[in-house]
Design goal:
By secondary structure, the protein is mainly beta. The protein is built from 1 helix and 32 strands. It is 1% helix and 53% strand. Strands 24, 25, 26, 27, 28, 29, 30, 31 and 32 form a 9-stranded antiparallel beta sheet that branches. Strands 16, 17, 18, 19, 20, 21, 22 and 23 form an 8-stranded antiparallel beta sheet that branches. It is globular and about 60 Å long. 54% of the residues are buried.
């Protein structure tokens, strides 16, 4: 069977319902996960997911068959015998190529979650070609303005091994943590609070980046959250980077400056051996900046350090009320992530914070075909915005998205070819109101569907899928997002 190494947090209910700074504890209780697996092959896929307990040799299995182009969601209820309190990792295997995303949340759904839970995060499952003995995370926090990052590292090798985490903070402090031995396919969780000598006196000592090394190949993800909450309200997740992600250019399909009260920050890590200069080129896609170009720069960023570009008035040349896509260029290798959240004035006015994190996508990984395992059009009051960026050197005139949907109804919808300028993006959002985008009528008219999506183009493309609660819904939940998977055409 073909194998996809997929790091998962499969916690139905965490063992501890209390807040802790050590041992990788997320705040509160009720955390659980769903794993959306898409068959990107040409025939039906027989899929097995094996979950590995983090503290014992016990495993739990779930199986299904997925049609070509379609997807299936595994929840804790699909794993025979999995107990409440399970925490661990997983490996998904199939006889066809597959891609997967993971959604972790504490939102109540039947027997899962906790009352009042609002937190949610999504991140990519990590394929065997995406693991390495060194992982890079551009952003690490230890109660920085009330936020902490928790890291989950899976041993993707064949032998047990420890891993060493090195945190480099903005003020120059360095902190290290060596994990216990991690068995094959198992995982360990930690934060900077587990590292030696972490006792910062300033905020610059509470934020930095992380490198994790081992003698065995690793897969890893990070979840950012409020340091202390009785019931968690936000979570932000993305995967760790490897040497395969290094490039002098990366792309961010969704950037915002005060657009519908939301803004972004781009965290760029210098993974080269010398000082670098960084240029961020924005292509306006909506709002006051539509059709226009802007630039921000940073100079002499030292090796191993991270630099943050903030898209807010007074911090950027990008104007307010703007949605854009970004091209991040440097004079040597970088990796980067994007954080998006509500502006502080909107939160202080009584609104709940909703935040997301995504990885900027390296130029070397871009192709003309993308897999999107999960897209929602008002399915249980959730909807997805799919932003597709043309990163080619010429205008794209044939971007086509194929949606394979089920739920309130089952259908396949194919979009009309979309024309997008070089560096710019096109958005699929709430397609039940976008009938003009599709080749025949409006197949989304009834909404209430989960879809998997395959996108093709005549120019290289990258994509981000952002999920949010339908406006006017009777409940609140954090936003979540993930990066599309670039496939060989």
């Amino acid at each position: 069977m073909k194998k996809l190494i997929t790091y998962l947090v499969l916690a139905a209910v965490l063992v501890s319902a209390t807040v802790a700074f050590a041992q990788g504890a997320l705040p509160g209780s009720g955390w659980w996960s769903g794993e959306q697996i898409q068959n990107v092959g040409s025939s039906d896929a027989n899929v097995t997911v094996t979950a590995y307990d983090k503290s014992s040799s016990t495993t739990y299995n779930a199986t299904t068959t997925i049609a070509s182009g379609a997807a299936f969601t595994f929840t804790p209820n699909n794993f025979t015998g999995m107990p409440d309190g399970f925490q661990g990792s997983a490996v998904a295997s199939a006889d066809q190529p597959i891609k997967a995303i993971v959604n972790i949340t504490n939102r109540q759904s039947g027997s899962l979650g906790v009352g009042g839970g609002k937190a949610a995060a999504q991140y990519q499952g990590i394929g065997h070609e995406m693991v390495d003995t060194t992982l890079y995370f551009p952003l690490a926090k230890g109660d920085h303005y009330g936020k902490t990052t928790t890291f989950y590292i899976q041993n993707a090798g064949s032998s047990a091994a420890t891993a060493t985490a090195t945190f480099v903070m903005r003020n120059g402090d360095t902190h290290t943590y060596t994990t216990p031995s991690i068995g094959p396919n198992q995982m360990v969780a930690f934060s900077v609070f587990d590292a030696t000598s972490f006792n910062p006196s300033t905020n610059d000592g509470k934020v930095g980046n992380l490198m994790v090394t081992s003698t065995q190949p690793l897969a890893g993800t990070v979840v950012e959250h409020f340091t202390t909450e009785a019931v968690a309200t936000i979570a932000q997740g993305t995967r760790g980077f490897t040497l395969a992600d290094f490039d002098t250019k990366a792309y961010a399909p969704v950037i915002k400056n005060s657009r519908f009260n939301r803004f972004t920050g781009i965290q760029v890590q210098n993974v080269s051996s010398g000082n670098i200069n960084i240029t961020v080129k924005y292509a306006g896609t909506a709002g006051s900046c539509a059709g226009n170009s802007y630039t921000d720069t940073a100079t002499a960023v030292v090796p191993g350090a991270s630099y943050t570009f903030i898209q807010l008035p007074g911090h950027t040349n990008l104007p307010s009320n703007c949605t854009a896509s970004a091209t991040i260029e440097a004079t040597d290798n970088i990796v980067a992530i994007v954080n998006e959240a509500y502006v502080s004035t909107y939160v202080s006015a009584g609104h709940s914070q909703r935040a997301v994190t995504s990885s900027a996508i390296s130029a070397g990984s871009a192709t003309t075909k993308i897999s999107i395992p999960l897209f929602k059009d008002d399915r249980f009051s959730k909807r997805t915005g799919l932003q597709i960026q043309n990163i080619g050197s010429a205008q794209a005139s044939n971007i086509v998205a194929t949606f394979v949907c089920s739920g309130g109804s089952s259908f396949t919808a194919i979009s009309k070819p979309q024309t997008v300028n070089a560096g710019a993006a096109v958005l699929f959002y709430h397609p039940s109101t976008q009938g003009s985008l599709f080749t025949s009528g409006n197949p989304f008219a009834s909404a209430n569907v989960n879809c998997s999506v395959t996108v093709t183009s005549d120019q290289p493309i990258v994509a981000i899928a952002n999920e949010s609660v339908t406006p006017g819904a009777s409940f609140e939940q954090d936003n979540n997002n993930y990066e599309g998977f670039n496939l060989a055409p």
